[in-house]
Amino acid sequence: MRDTASVLHLDLDAFFAAVEQRDKPSLRGKPVVVGGTGGRGVVATASYEARRFGVRSAMSTREARSRCPHAAFLSGRFPAYRAASELVMAELRAVSPLVEPLSLDEAFVDLAAAGLPDLTLPTVTEVAQRLRARVAEVTGGLTASVGLASSKFVAKVASELDKPDGLTVVPPGTEQELLRPMPARVIPGVGPQTTERLRRAGVHTVADLEALSLDELVRLLGKAHGHGLHAFARAQDDRPVVAEREAKSVSVEGTYDTDLTDRRLMEGLLTRQAGEVATRLRAHGLSGRTVTIKVRLHDFTTLSRSSTLPSPTDAAGVVARTARTLLADLDTSGGVRLLGVGVSGLADWVQEDLFADDAALGDEAADEVAPVDLEAAFPRRRTWPPGADVVHEEHGRGWVWGSGRGVVTVRFETAASPSGPVRSFAEDDPALQRWTSTEPDPGEVTTQPLSSPT
Description:
Belongs to the DNA polymerase type-Y family. The chain is an alpha+beta fold and about 450 residues long. It has four domains: about 10-170, Reverse transcriptase/Diguanylate cyclase domain (Alpha-Beta Plaits, 2-Layer Sandwich); about 175-230, DNA polymerase, domain 1 (Orthogonal Bundle), CATH 1.10.150.20; about 260-370, DNA polymerase, Y-family, little finger domain (Dna Ligase, domain 1, 2-Layer Sandwich); about 380-454, SH3 type barrels. The protein contains 15 helices and 17 strands. It is globular, with a radius of gyration of 25 Å.
């Protein structure tokens, strides 16, 4: 732990929802929920207006609708979020060369590497205030909450204390005073299962955890977990800010509106997902040794199975064949609602002669499963997900308000316009198209819209 508050954690507030409110004037100040919009969807982000009704991340969309039926439920525009994130990360890197992104909407910054005249509280506080102002300026009004502390752990905790649009500075030497009254779940690694185990042991707060000896924690939670919690409960965290975080896995998964029961269809889907994973591996110059499938059954039971190969691979055929073999060991007769394929144990090399038979087969190895008509099972059609950017030949730019029964409803507005009118069209109206241009309107914040539907 440092003797200066030189670790900064920045967290963009309700990021996905905030980008939607920025780009859609009619939604500003109103409840917005971003995530899966179908019956089996999950909330990715809820605006603060929606959170007042109890909507939160990871909640099922069905429950979110019951809690806040008047919210705007949007499917998400990840290119727009990525563009906003890149603007923010560029500002962070302009402050310090040591920036550790955790996700699109949060990152650590090491101010000790920023070349500041000193690391006193007034100096680092001024830097944080200027940074928050710059984030709002370059993103067109998005806000960020910031924590400043002597370690990554305490800085992240601090950034949660004054949301949204807040700044919390923890002076060195006051970390334990801050942490002790907090619930034990603020500590990294204390999830629902660990929380319950600690509760049964009479541990509810960080102060309770601090009172346990190292031996007691090891007996309760195991050696690695016990040692980690023992240190965190005492605000001890020497983890450095790392500019490049190594990817641990590459995966693809899909959730289906209707339970899958056809094993051949499942194998076909896994094969297609394996191909996507392999493409991503090659695009990043990576390969992996461990293939994992994830299967969520009709009753929400989630199963995973893994197989480790002799050497790393980026071959779609090898990943697909392994995934199908893993599926064969599972009972899916009751129906499957989610399938996924992942590759971990990543490396930056591939043994060329690995599985020579598969190499000789080339792409045929990925298709050795009996052909399945995926297009018939999941037909491609012109879709209009809620929130998607569109353009009309007469009315100009807008976004999808909703669609169904052959009709798509659009609100015509942009980030730079006032709240706009609503119009409805036939779903196959040739004058209405998904918007794919990356050129912004004059005065508009630059975002990259979704590509055309496939």
